[in-house]
Amino acid sequence: MTSTTTESGSTTAILDWLATQPSSDLAEEAIQFRRQLDLLATPGIAPTQFHRCIELFYGRALRAGSEVKPRLTESGLPLDRKLHTTTRQIVEAMCTVAGGFLQVVGHVRSGAIRSQSRLIETLASRGLRMLSEAWEIAGLSGGMHVAELWPLSVSLISAAGDEQTPAEASGESAQFAFKRLVALGTLQLERFSQSEIGWICDYLNRIATLLALELKSPSAPDNGWYWIAAVGEDGPQSVTRRPPPTGQQLVFASPAALAKRVTEHLARLEAGQQPFELNLPRIAVGVQPLSLLQRLRDEWTIPIKREQPRRKTQYSVQVCCGIPGIWEIMRGNKPLDGSIQEWQVINESPGGFSILHVAGVAAGLSAGTAIALRRDDEQPWSICVVRWIRSENPSQIELGLQIVSTGSTPVTVGFRGARERPSKMVKALVLPAMPALRHHPAILAPTGTYTSRRFSLVSDLDRIYIAQGRLLSLDMQTANIELFQFEIDPYPI
Questions:
Q1: Could you tell me whether strands 370-374 and 311-321 are parallel, antiparallel, or unpaired per DSSP bridges?
Q2: Which helix (H) or strand (E) holds 267?
Q3: Which of 356, 388, 406 is the last residue of a domain?
Q4: Where a domain ends, among 274, 301, 328?
Q5: What is the DSSP string of 371-415?
Q6: pLDDT tens digits for 340-350?
Q7: 447-493: per-residue pLDDT in tens?
Q8: Most distant CA pair in the chain, distance
Q9: 3-state class of 431 per DSSP?
Q10: Is 148 helix (H, G, I), strand (E, B) or coil?
Q11: pTM of the prediction?
């Protein structure tokens, strides 16, 4: 009798809260969400009541996720402490809800909840949808650690089995939800800006079903396969980097068909078709679909594997972020207060560095940003591009840098445009030719600068120098910068 009273009181309080409108204060909503989930963990709650609550928590979690995503995209990294705490609470709540769906699956199998047609499939699908949302939000926040997500995902997809659902229901199936999660997990999200992550997730809603999935070891796995274990906290692991372990429950996946579809979209875009004609996601600020698709194709075709050895080290460096700030210091102008900050190099290789934030305010950073770095005032500046960014807590941020040049020359460039819309001159950096990287000089400029094959170049450091350049190749394009090789046109127009 006492147990019944406790059960009734617990679920009544939870259901009363779930019946209220979500708080307009997302931070308060996340706190209350966590508290109510803790109440749901009270022993003695009837399986049917538990199932009812988890279904209601599912809808509430989706709403919280839809609210926090645009805030994360707009905030840049690292997050402020309040937003970081709120985001972590939402991610943890989503994982708890996913675990709740797995618990309900157990109740169905034990007979505590009456089985219905495709009930376990639906439960697994919603649990996997929660995990996919949690992984996306964690990526937008800078890669916060999400414990138990991957083993839980394997348990859910295994519970659903390999039942094939009708094509019209694929967007709601456990298979589709798991494929979307795994496809996202095969990418190193720290290599993409927050806007790009949002675009990728929208793109996967259209193509994730193409991912090849095997609940048993493939008969002839090639180097494009990944595996996920039912134990441990690691996401999808490429067979080229880590051979699959023996004696464990594993799920295998191959993104080869995703890479093929991306290649088809690239070919049609390069042929002149518009993104909307291919049913691609809407173009967001800071997203270059052609460049982003090329990077997706590369990652899904050949998993990234480190080619140069890293050496652990520790020393302080001066860092200047962004082309405008680098342009000023390369001209010898006095830097603005706070534009040069102290960071710590924690490892290095011949091609780059990994640096950790030490002092000052590092805000608004994202993958693809230009960075200038030097050890002290006597050393030349190394020009780098941020290849990845991690920020597991608001007081720390780590960047992976790729060196693109030692030294640079500040210039302004303007590409030829239509007569009615002439191109404006923008600040850029000329990088010298480097035999190991490129045979010609290059220009590092803000994304969107390159619009045609010919451009004007102006330098006024020591004397006025004006030339016409001819673009040879676009070597790199991110949400923030583009880098292209050029030559001085011997026959200017």
A1: antiparallel
A2: helix 256-270
A3: 406
A4: 301
A5: EEEESSTTSPPEEEEEEEEEEEETTEEEEEEEEEEES-EEEEEEE
A6: 999 999 999 98
A7: 989 888 899 999 998 899 999 999 999 999 988 999 999 999 877 76
A8: 94
A9: strand
A10: coil
A11: 0.89
